[in-house]
Amino acid sequence: MVWFLHDLARLELERRAIEQLQSDASWLKGVEWMIAEGGKLAVDAEIEVHGNLYQARIIYPAAFPDAPPVVKPKNPAERWSSHQYESGTLCIEWGPDNWHRDINGAQLLESTHRLLHRDNPRGTEKFGVLHSRHALSLGQEIRIYPIRFCLGAQLGSAR
C-alpha cells in the first residue's frame, strides 16, 4: 500500500512540518519532494553546517508512519559520519529501536543537522561528544567474544 496516497492527512502534516522548519531554520537551504526508487516518497534537502552544504535524502518506507524513514546522503558514495551504516543510512536520534508515529520528517532533519554540527565531517574541529542512542547491556557488549566470563557483584564480593 502506498501510504501517502491513502493517508493524505499525514502527508500534509509531513509537508507542513518540513515547510515550517525551512522557514524557521536558516541552515535548511533547499527542499524537494519526489517519488524515489521503488515508488517510495522521498525528500531531498540541503543542510548547511559550518559553511558546508550536505545534500541529504529522507526516504519514507511503505509502512510509514508505523516504520521510520531513513536519512542518507543524496550521493550514495558519500560517508559523512562514524554514525553511519554501510547502507549509507545515518544513525540519528530516531530509528527502528525508538521510533513512534508522532515523529515527523522535520524532526529527522533537525537530528541530522545536530549530528553533522557535532561530528563536523568536513572540518577538523569536533563540536561535542556524540552519544549513541543505542544503550547496550554488558551482555550485548561482550556477545561478540567467543569466550567470555562475567563475574557478578555478589560472587566477586564473596569471601
Which strand order does the major sheet show? 1-2-3-4
> What is the subunit arrangement here?
single chain
Q: Spans of 5+ residues with little confidence (pLDDT < 50)?
A: none
Please tell me what the overall shape is.
globular
The count of helical stretches stands at 5
Radius of gyration: 19 Å
CATH topology descriptor: Ubiquitin Conjugating Enzyme
Query: How many strand segments?
Result: 4
Mean pLDDT: 87
The biggest beta sheet reads:
4 strands, antiparallel
Which range best describes the helical content: under 10%, 10-25%, 25-40%, 40-55%, 55-70% or over 70%? Answer: 25-40%
What fraction of the residues are assigned to beta strands by DSSP? Answer: 15-25%
* SSE string: HHEEEEHHH
CATH superfamily: Ubiquitin Conjugating Enzyme
Ends distance: 63 Å
Would you mind describing this structure in some detail?
This protein has a single domain, classed as Ubiquitin Conjugating Enzyme (Roll). Strands 1-2-3-4 form a four-stranded antiparallel beta sheet, with helices on one face. A hairpin with a 5-residue loop joins strand 1 and strand 2. The chain has 159 residues and is α+β, with helices and mostly antiparallel strands. The protein is globular. It has helices at residues 3-6, 8-24, 105-119, 138-142, 153-157, and strands spanning 28-35, 41-49, 52-59, 70-73.
